[in-house]
C-alpha cells in the first residue's frame, strides 16, 4: 500500500519574522508590565502568598539554612583564598537577589564549595603573578586592616588602575579585587547567555560528566584542606598537577604537624561524621537537621579562646572579622581582562548546577521553572554582589536538600536565611576571632562526603552503562590530576567524542523473521528466528551521514558476504580474458580450463539472495553523503541483479531521499523502492523473485 503525504502549508518566514520583530519592538503598558513581572518573578507569586499555609515552613527552613550557612561561609573562605567576611557578604546578597529574580521555590543559592575552589585557584594564580607570597600570614591583630583600606603592613604593595587613577593595593585588597572582577565577568557571561537564549549549552553537560567533575574537584578540595587539618605550613600549589604536588609537600613536611591542630581535627571529624550518620539514619524522625556545624564552631571557638591555643600551641586561627559593610566599589576593568577566560567555565558550571537543581525541585513538587530566567537570576547574583566585595555563587545541592526537608514552600525562606547572615555580619562576626582554621577544614572535608561516596557507585554505574562510567572516570581524573578547568574541558570533549563514536560505529545486524508473525529481529540476539529465502534484511542503528558512511558500507558487505564492487570487477576481468582467448580461437581459457568450466567460474560464488532490505527505522536523518551512499549501493547491487529496498523510513528521511533524487525525477519508482514495513518489503521481494 502507499500512504499519501499531507500537503505542507508553506510558511512565509519573512512575514513571521517581521511580525515577531514588530511585536517585540512595540511598547504598551501591558507589555511593559509583563516584561517587568517576568524579570522579577517575585511580583507574580508574592501577592498570592498563602501566609497561614506557607509562613511557618519558610521561617523554619530559613532559620535552619541560615544556621548552616554561617559556618559554611566562614569555612569556604579558605577555599576561595579570601577573608571570612567576604563569604558572609556573598551569602547575604545571593539570597536576596535570587528571592527577587529566581523561578525555583526551593533551590538554595549561595556559596558552593566547587565554585569557591575555582575562584580560589584564579585568586592564587594572580597573587603569585603580582609578586605576593601566598603563605604570608599576617599577625592576627593587624591582618584585617586591609579590609578597610588599601594597604597591608606586612605584604608587597601592587599598583593598578581604577577609573584612570593609580591605586596602591595590599594582598587582601588585591585578592578580593581579583575575585570581584572574576565574579562580575562570569555574571556578564551568564546574562549574555540569557539574552541570546543560550541556556541549551547546559544540555551538553551530561550527568556523568558533572558528577565526575564534582568528584574530581572534591578530591582537590580535600587535598587543599589537609595542611590546615594537621597545621603545617606548605606553599599553596598552582597550575597543573596541583593535587600530586600538594601531597608530596604534605609528606615532606609531615614532621612539622601541629599536635594541637591534629587532635582538634580528629575530635571535630569524629563528632561531625557521627552526627551526620545519625542524622541520615533518623532523618524521618527529626523535624529539622541537627545544627552540628554550628555547635562544633561555637564549642571550638570557646575552647580555643579560653585555652589560648593560638598563643600556647601556635594553632592558626581565623583572626578578626569586622562587623558591618565595606563601602561598595566598582570591579577593576584591568583585572577583568586578566580573568576573562577563567570566568567562562565558572559561568557555565554555576548555571548548570543551578538549573539542574531547579529542574529537580520543580519536577518533585510539580511546578515549572524558566531556564532562561534562571540564567538571568544567577547572572545578577554575581554582577550586583561583585560591587559589594562578594564572589561567585551557585545553587548548592546539600543546602537545597535540607531546605526541602525542613518545610520550605517559597523563596521567603531565602530572605530569612539572609537575615540570619545579616545578624552575624552586624553583631556576631567578631566572636569568631579565635576559631581555629583546622575546624573550618574539618567542616569542608565532612561536607564532601556525598561527592566522595560516588566512588562506591562506580560498580553499579558500570553495570548500567559502561560508556557513562568511562566519561565519569576520565572527567574525575582530569579534574583531580590536572586542574578543574582542564577537567571540565576534557569532560565535555570526551562526552561528545563518545556520542560521535557511537554514531560512527553503531550496532548493525541481519534480521530474521519471528516464526508465524510479520515481525523481524536481530538473528544474533534472539533464538528460533527463520531466515527469509533469497532476501537479506540489514539494520543500521544510527543516522547515516558523512562520518559513518564507510562503516555502513563495510558492515553491509561483511554481513551479506558480498562486495558488489569487487564482484563486478572480478566478472569484468574474467570476461575480458575470455574474449581475448576467443579472438585467438583457443577453446582453453587463460587459466587452462575449458570453456564450460570458465563459464562456471564467471560466477565466482553462489549468491544466495536477490534482494537486500535496509531497515531504516533507526536512521533518524540522512545528509547528502548518506543519500549518495544509498544511491551508490542501489546502483552497485543492480549490476549484480540484486534489488535494494528501503523499509520503515521516517518522513524526514523520505524527504531527504526525494530531494536527493533517489526515486527519480517524478518519484515514479517510489512504490517499488520504499516500504512502510519490513514485511511489505519482504512480500514485494518474493513477488519480484
Descriptive notes:
This protein is α/β, with parallel strands linked by helices. It has two domains: 56-133 and 166-501, no CATH class; 508-566 and 605-688, Transcription Regulator spoIIAA, CATH 3.30.750. Helix content is 60%, strand content 7%. It has 28 helices and eleven strands. It has helices at 13-25, 29-39, 42-45, 51-80, 84-101, 113-129, 171-195, 207-230, 242-252, 259-281, 292-307, 309-313, 333-365, 371-386, 397-405, 412-428, 437-447, 449-452, 458-464, 466-481, 484-504, 549-560, 564-584, 595-601, 624-638, 651-659, 670-673, 678-688, and strands at 109-110, 158-162, 165-169, 394-395, 508-514, 520-522, 529-530, 534-540, 609-615, 643-647, 674-675. The strands form three sheets. Strands 5, 6, 7, 8, 9, 10 and 11 form a seven-stranded mixed beta sheet that branches. Strands 1-4 form a two-stranded antiparallel ribbon. The chain has a two-stranded antiparallel sheet with strand order 2-3. α4 (51-80) runs antiparallel to α5 and α13 (333-365) runs antiparallel to α14 (371-386). The longest helix is centred in the middle third of the chain and has 33 residues, at 333-365.
Q: How would a textbook summarize the main sheet? A: 7 strands, mixed
> How far is it from the N-terminal to the C-terminal residue, by CA?
19 Å
Helix percent reads 55-70%
The mean pLDDT is: 84
In total, the number of domains comes to 2
Strand residue percentage: 5-15%
What is the overall number of helices? 28
Shape type: elongated
Protein name: Sulfate transporter
Keywords: Cell membrane, Glycoprotein, Membrane, Phosphoprotein, Transmembrane, Transmembrane helix, Transport
Pfam families: STAS, Sulfate_transp
GO molecular function, one term: secondary active sulfate transmembrane transporter activity
Amino acid at each position: 500500500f502507499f500512504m499519501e503525504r499531507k500537503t505542507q502549508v508553506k510558511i512565509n518566514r519573512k512575514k513571521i519574522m517581521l511580525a515577531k520583530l514588530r511585536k517585540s519592538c512595540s511598547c504598551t503598558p501591558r507589555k511593559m508590565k509583563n516584561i517587568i513581572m517576568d524579570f522579577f518573578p517575585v511580583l507574580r507569586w508574592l501577592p498570592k502568598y498563602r501566609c497561614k499555609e506557607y509562613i511557618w515552613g519558610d521561617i523554619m527552613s530559613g532559620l535552619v539554612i541560615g544556621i548552616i550557612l554561617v559556618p559554611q561561609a566562614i569555612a569556604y573562605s579558605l577555599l576561595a583564598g579570601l577573608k571570612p567576611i567576604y563569604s558572609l557578604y556573598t551569602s547575604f546578597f545571593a539570597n536576596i537577589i535570587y528571592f527577587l529574580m529566581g523561578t525555583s521555590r526551593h533551590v538554595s543559592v549561595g556559596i558552593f564549595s566547587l565554585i569557591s575552589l575555582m575562584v580560589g585557584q584564579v585568586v592564587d594564580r594572580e597573587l603569585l603573578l603580582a609578586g605576593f607570597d601566598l603563605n604570608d600570614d599576617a599577625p592576627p591583630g593587624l591582618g584585617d586592616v586591609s579590609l578597610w583600606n588599601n594597604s597591608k603592613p606586612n605584604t608587597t604593595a601592587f599598583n593598578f588602575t581604577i577609573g584612570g587613577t593609580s591605586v596602591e593595593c595590599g594582598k587582601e585588597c588585591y585578592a578580593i579585587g581579583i575575585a570581584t572582577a572574576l565574579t562580575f565577568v562570569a555574571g556578564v557571561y551568564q546574562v549574555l547567555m540569557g539574552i541570546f537564549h543560550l541556556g541549551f549549552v547546559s544540555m551538553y553537560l551530561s550527568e556523568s560528566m558533572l558528577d565526575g567533575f564534582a568528584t574530581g574537584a572534591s578530591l582537590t578540595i580535600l587535598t587543599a584542606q589537609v595542611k590546615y587539618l594537621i597545621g603545617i605550613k606548605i606553599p599553596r600549589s598552582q597550575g597543573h598537577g596541583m593535587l600530586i604536588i600538594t601531597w608530596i609537600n604534605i609528606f615532606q613536611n609531615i614532621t612539622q604537624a601541629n599536635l594541637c591542630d591534629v587532635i582538634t581535627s580528629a575530635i571535630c571529624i569524629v563528632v561531625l561524621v557521627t552526627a551526620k550518620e545519625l542524622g541520615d539514619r533518623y532523618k524521618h524522625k527529626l523535624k529539622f537537621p541537627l545544627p552540628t556545624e554550628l555547635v562544633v564552631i561555637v564549642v571550638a571557638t570557646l575552647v580555643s579562646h579560653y585555652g589560648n591555643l593560638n598563643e600556647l600551641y601556635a594553632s592558626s586561627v581565623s583572626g578578626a572579622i569586622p562587623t558591618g559593610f565595606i563601602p561598595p566599589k566598582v570591579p577593576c576593568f584591568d583585572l577583568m581582562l586578566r580573568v576573562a577566560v577563567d570566568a567562562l567555565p565558572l559561568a557555565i558550571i554555576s548555571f548548570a548546577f543551578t538549573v539542574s537543581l531547579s529542574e529537580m525541585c520543580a519536577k518533585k513538587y510539580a511546578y515549572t521553572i524558566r531556564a532562561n530566567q534562571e540564567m538571568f537570576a544567577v547572572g545578577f547574583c554575581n554582577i550586583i554582589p561583585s560591587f559589594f566585595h562578594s564572589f561567585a555563587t551557585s545553587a548548592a545541592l546539600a543546602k537545597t536538600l535540607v531546605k526541602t526537608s525542613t518545610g520550605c514552600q517559597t523563596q521567603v525562606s531565602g530572605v530569612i536565611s539572609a537575615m540570619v547572615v545579616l545578624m552575624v555580619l552586624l553583631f556576631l562576626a567578631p566572636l569568631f576571632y579565635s576559631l581555629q582554621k583546622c575546624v573550618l577544614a574539618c567542616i569542608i572535608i565532612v561536607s564532601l562526603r556525598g561527592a566522595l561516596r560516588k566512588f562506591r557507585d562506580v560498580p553499579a554505574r558500570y553495570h548500567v552503562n559502561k560508556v557513562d562510567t568511562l566519561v565519569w572516570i576520565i572527567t574525575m581524573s582530569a579534574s583531580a590530576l590536572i586542574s578543574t578547568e582542564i577537567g571540565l574541558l576534557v569532560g565535555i570533549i570526551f562526552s561528545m567524542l563518545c556520542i560521535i563514536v557511537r554514531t560512527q560505529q553503531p550496532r548493525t545486524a541481519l534480521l530474521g523473521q519471528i516464526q508465524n508473525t510479520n515481525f523481524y529481529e536481530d538473528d544474533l540476539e534472539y533464538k528460533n528466528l527463520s531466515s527469509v529465502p533469497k532476501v537479506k534484511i540489514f539494520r543500521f542503528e544510527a543516522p547515516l551521514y558523512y562520518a559513518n558512511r564507510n562503516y555502513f558500507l563495510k558492515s553491509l558487505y561483511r554481513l551479506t558476504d558480498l562486495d558488489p564492487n569487487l564482484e563486478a570487477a572480478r566478472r569484468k576481468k574474467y570476461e575480458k580474458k575470455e574474449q581475448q582467448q576467443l579472438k585467438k580461437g583457443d577453446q582453453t581459457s587463460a587459466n587452462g580450463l575449458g570453456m564450460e568450466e570458465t563459464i562456471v567460474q564467471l560466477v565466482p560464488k553462489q549468491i544466495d539472495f536477490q534482494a537486500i532490505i535496509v531497515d531504516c527505522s533507526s536512521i533518524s536523518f540522512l545528509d547528502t553523503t548518506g543519500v549518495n551512499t544509498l544511491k551508490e549501493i542501489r546502483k552497485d547491487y543492480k549490476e549484480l541483479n540484486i534489488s535494494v529496498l528501503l523499509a520503515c523510513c521516517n518522513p524526514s528521511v523520505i524527504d531527504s531521499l526525494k530531494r536527493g533524487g533517489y526515486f527519480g525525477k517524478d518519484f515514479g519508482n517510489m512504490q517499488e523502492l520504499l516500504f512502510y514495513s519490513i514485511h511489505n518489503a519482504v512480500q514485494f521481494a518474493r513477488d519480484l523473485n
